[in-house]
Amino acid sequence: MGFLLLIARSFINTFGITQPGPEGERRAAYFIGTLLALIVVGMIIALAGFLKVRG
Fold first, then answer.
1. CA–CA distance, 21 with 24 (Å, rounded to integer)
2. Which pTM was predicted?
3. How many CA atoms lie within 13 A of 18 on its CB side?
4. Distance between CA 31 and CA 40 in Å, rounded?
5. φ, ψ for residue 15 (rounded to 5)?
6. Residue 55 has pLDDT above 90, yes or no
7. Neighbouring C-beta atoms of residue 8, cutoff 10 Å
8. Residue range 11-34, pLDDT digits in tens
9. How many independent structural domains does the chain possess?
């Protein structure tokens, strides 16, 4: 959870979003972590599809 909070805080501070409370910060961490996981899964699926078409 600490790593997700670090990512969420960095994202919030980078884009100048108003600092949320502890509950909102935890919710934002889960949301951002989920989006990052979906991106990674999508990249893996795209790579697998590319390799299947290529090979």
1. 5
2. 0.75
3. 3
4. 14
5. -95, 5
6. no
7. 22
8. 899 999 899 999 999 999 999 999
9. 1
